[in-house]
Amino acid sequence: MIQIAPSILAADFAALGEQVQTVEEAGAHLLHLDVMDGHFVPNITLGPPVVASIRKITRLPLDVHLMIENPDAYVEAFADAGADWISVHSEACAHLDRTLNRIRSLGLSTGVALNPATSLSVLDNVLSLVDFVLIMSVNPGFGAQKFIPYSLRKIEELRKMIDRKGLSVKIEVDGGVSLDNLCALVRSGSEVLVAGSQIFGSPDPGAVVRQMIDRSAGCVESGQGGVR
Questions:
Q1: pTM of the predicted protein model
Q2: Considering 63, 172, 190, 192, which has the largest number of Cβ atoms within 10 A of its Cβ?
Q3: Active-site residue among 37, 63, 131, 174?
Q4: Cα-to-chain-centroid distance, residue 143
Q5: Is residue 120 part of a domain?
């Protein structure tokens, strides 16, 4: 099943509770929360208190994407705030194996994120430690960016890599995801699709979530999805 993860980076924070409720009722599978520190990426967003506040208003799993330096210092704080999934960037972790094992020890779904120019080779020794890999299909730091086309080839290569190793690891994609490229992403092997401006930039975010769910199911049923 393809999972749709609305990214609250693009939501109206003045009406965040209402917008979260809207996408939850529309069938979203999880909420994607981008954490930026102004150092690893050129933007500052939210911290554990905001995650804790969102935890109180939704039953959806919270997918916390740490785009920060020294994520080891904050993993436990985000776990305590209510994160269900935590991903860290390979580029930010001096000791990636240790960081991933730390997240697993907290009982959370564990993910590693890769920037567009980062090679899949960094996963060779840690793929068995994760539940999902987050492929950035834009350069991280800001929303509403254009999808980088070579990301599709990277996703296909990752799908083959996972299958060769016989692992059950999901591929999540974040950046420029839209109704227009959704089927191409599913066809490449993507299973979790993060969408921000496509959903929250619409007058009816719930309708877009339902469209994305229906279209992704159609891609699979018509044989357009999956490269396994």
A1: 0.94
A2: 190
A3: 174
A4: 13
A5: yes
